[in-house]
C-alpha cells in the first residue's frame, strides 16, 4: 500500500487527477472505474476543467461503481445520473462508453454477472477510484462483505438507508433499500491500480481503523490492502493532522 498524505482537499484532488491521467496515458482505451459522493467532486472538477479532457478520454470507458436498484438515470436520486452531470457530460462520454449494471434490468443478477464478464473480457480496469464510507463500506459493499464477492444486488445497511432517507426527505421522499455494486472480489481481481480517496475530519476515525486493521470483511475497505496495487490519498484533515 502506498500512502500519500496531502496538505489539502485541493492537493488530494490534483494528485488523484494525475493518477487518472497517467492511467489514460498508459492505455488510451482504458476502463476507469469511478465512484459518486462528495469525495471525488474535486477530482471531477480537475478532470473536466482541462480543455483537452474530451480528447484525453476519447478511447476510454467509465465503469460506474454502484447505483440504486430500480432507479433510472433520469430520476433525481440516480447515482449514474449524478455522475453524468458531474463528470461524463463534461468529458463528452456517452452511454456507449459507460459500463454499468442496468438498474431496471428484469434480471439484475444476470446483468451483474454480465458486467463482471465484460470487465474481464476487456482486460480489467486500469484504475479504480474509490471513496471511503463512514462505516468502511466501498461502493455498496457494506460491513460483512466477503473479499471474493462478485458484482451483485445488495440490501443497504440500516445506517445507509437512514442517511439516504434523511437526504431524500427534503427532495420529495425516497428510501432506497437495495443497491447494485461492483463486488469487492471484482474490484480486487480486476483493478490494476486502486486509488482510495479519503477527505475530511469526519473520516478521521474510520481512516485510523482502516490503517490499523488487517484485511477483514468487518471493514470492507481493509480488504483493499490485498490489491496488487493500492494507493491511498488522504488529506491532512482525514489523517488527523489538522482541523
Ligand atoms: C459512492 C460510493 C460510496 C462512497 C462513500 C463515501 O459511489 O460508492 O462508497 O464512496 O460512501 O462517500 P463520500 O465521498 O460522500 O464521503
TrEMBL record:
Residues 9-228 form the Glucosamine/galactosamine-6-phosphate isomerase domain. PANTHER family: GLUCOSAMINE-6-PHOSPHATE ISOMERASE. Keywords: Carbohydrate metabolism, Hydrolase. GO terms for biological process: carbohydrate metabolic process; glucosamine catabolic process; N-acetylglucosamine catabolic process; N-acetylneuraminate catabolic process. GO terms for cellular component: cytoplasm. This is Glucosamine-6-phosphate deaminase. It comes from Paenibacillus antri. InterPro entries: Glc/Gal-6P_isomerase, Glucosamine6P_isomerase, Glucosamine6P_isomerase_CS, NagB/RpiA_transferase-like. The lineage of its organism: Bacteria, Bacillati, Bacillota, Bacilli, Bacillales. Signal peptide: none annotated. The keyword Hydrolase applies. Pfam families: Glucosamine_iso. The keyword Cell division does not apply. GO terms for molecular function: glucosamine-6-phosphate deaminase activity; identical protein binding. Transmembrane segments: none annotated.
Amino acid at each position: 500500500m502506498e500512502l500519500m498524505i496531502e496538505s489539502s482537499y485541493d492537493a488530494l484532488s490534483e494528485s488523484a487527477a494525475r493518477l487518472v491521467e497517467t492511467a489514460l496515458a498508459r492505455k488510451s482505451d482504458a476502463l476507469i472505474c469511478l465512484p459518486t459522493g462528495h469525495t471525488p467532486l474535486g477530482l471531477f472538477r480537475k478532470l473536466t476543467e482541462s480543455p483537452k479532457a474530451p480528447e484525453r478520454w476519447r478511447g476510454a470507458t467509465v465503469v460506474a461503481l454502484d447505483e440504486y436498484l430500480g432507479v433510472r438515470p433520469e430520476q433525481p436520486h440516480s447515482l449514474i445520473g449524478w455522475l453524468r452531470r458531474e463528470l461524463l457530460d463534461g468529458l463528452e462520454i456517452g452511454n456507449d462508453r459507460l459500463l454499468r449494471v442496468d438498474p431496471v434490468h428484469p434480471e439484475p443478477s444476470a446483468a451483474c454477472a454480465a458486467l463482471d464478464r465484460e470487465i474481464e473480457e476487456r482486460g480489467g480496469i486500469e484504475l479504480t477510484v474509490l471513496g471511503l464510507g463512514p462505516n468502511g463500506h466501498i461502493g455498496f459493499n457494506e460491513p460483512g462483505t466477503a473479499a471474493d464477492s462478485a458484482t451483485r444486488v445488495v440490501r443497504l445497511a440500516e445506517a445507509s438507508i437512514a442517511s439516504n432517507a434523511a437526504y431524500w426527505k427534503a427532495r420529495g421522499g425516497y428510501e432506497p433499500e437495495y443497491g447494485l455494486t461492483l463486488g469487492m472480489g471484482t474490484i480486487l481481481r480486476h483493478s490494476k491500480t486502486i486509488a482510495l480517496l479519503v477527505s475530511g475530519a469526519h473520516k478521521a476515525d474510520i481512516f485510523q481503523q482502516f490503517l490499523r486493521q488487517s484485511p477483514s470483511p468487518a471493514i470492507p475497505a481493509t480488504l483493499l490492502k490485498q490489491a496488487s496495487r493500492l494507493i491511498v490519498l488522504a488529506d491532512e484533515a482525514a489523517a488527523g493532522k489538522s482541523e
